[in-house]
């Protein structure tokens, strides 16, 4: 059975958090769909609130403490990413953007991404397409077509109608699962100490031939 690794990052600031709740529901649907298709899934969740001090220190000092490095390594080697942020002042949270800023610029290349966002009213839903999606596209990730926005009024919806939150979550999760299943990023994980030329070129041009 094929095994895929997905990483979930939640930028909610409160406990409990509607952002984490949305991330959990998106993850549950994506994992369920992949397993139904015969794909085993390993899911790892990171609450950015718990990494806030480490992220700030990395921005200031240029190195990642162990817990933050674990999250960065997990993203770099993942087969898919579920990224969920609250919307503040019409855009993603500063903590969310700060985490993206400390990721290696090449780490998101060809990475399938399911985007989620939460906010007080549905008028903030466009932030997914004018703020969050361009961010991941710029970093050469592959955001799926459906982004999932959850306003306060969406919680407790019974699921009636094609525009309900459960339906949007399922649609996005299905697109994500299908993309993760057919995406192979194994050739992007390389040894940072590997040489792209024979070592003889570094010692007087000797090639061993």
Automatic annotation (TrEMBL):
Residues 5-155 form the NADPH-dependent FMN reductase-like domain. Signal peptide: none annotated. The keyword Flavoprotein applies. SUPFAM superfamilies: Flavoproteins. Keywords: Flavoprotein, FMN, Oxidoreductase. It comes from the Bacteria. PANTHER family: FMN REDUCTASE (NADPH). This is FMN reductase. It comes from Agromyces humatus. The lineage of its organism: Bacteria, Bacillati, Actinomycetota, Actinomycetes, Micrococcales.
């Amino acid at each position: 059975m094929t095994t895929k690794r997905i990483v979930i990052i939640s930028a909610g600031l409160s406990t409990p958090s509607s952002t984490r709740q949305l991330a959990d529901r998106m993850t549950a649907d994506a994992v369920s769909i992949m397993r139904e298709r015969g794909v085993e899934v390993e899911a790892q969740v990171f609450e950015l609130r718990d990494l806030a001090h480490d992220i700030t220190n990395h921005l200031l000092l240029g190195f990642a403490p162990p817990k933050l490095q674990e999250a960065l390594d997990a993203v770099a080697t993942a087969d898919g990413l579920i990224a969920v942020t609250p919307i503040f002042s019409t855009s993603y949270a500063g903590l969310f953007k700060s985490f993206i800023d400390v990721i290696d610029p090449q780490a998101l290349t060809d990475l399938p991404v399911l985007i989620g966002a939460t906010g007080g009213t549905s008028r903030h839903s466009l932030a997914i397409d004018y703020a969050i999606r361009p961010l991941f596209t710029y970093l050469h990730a592959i955001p799926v077509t459906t982004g999932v926005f959850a306003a306060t009024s969406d919680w407790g919806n019974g699921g009636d109608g094609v525009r309900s939150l459960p339906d949007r979550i399922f649609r996005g999760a299905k697109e994500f699962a299908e993309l993760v299943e057919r995406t192979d990023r194994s050739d992007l994980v390389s040894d940072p100490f590997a040489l792209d030329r024979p070592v003889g070129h570094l010692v007087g041009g000797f090639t061993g031939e």
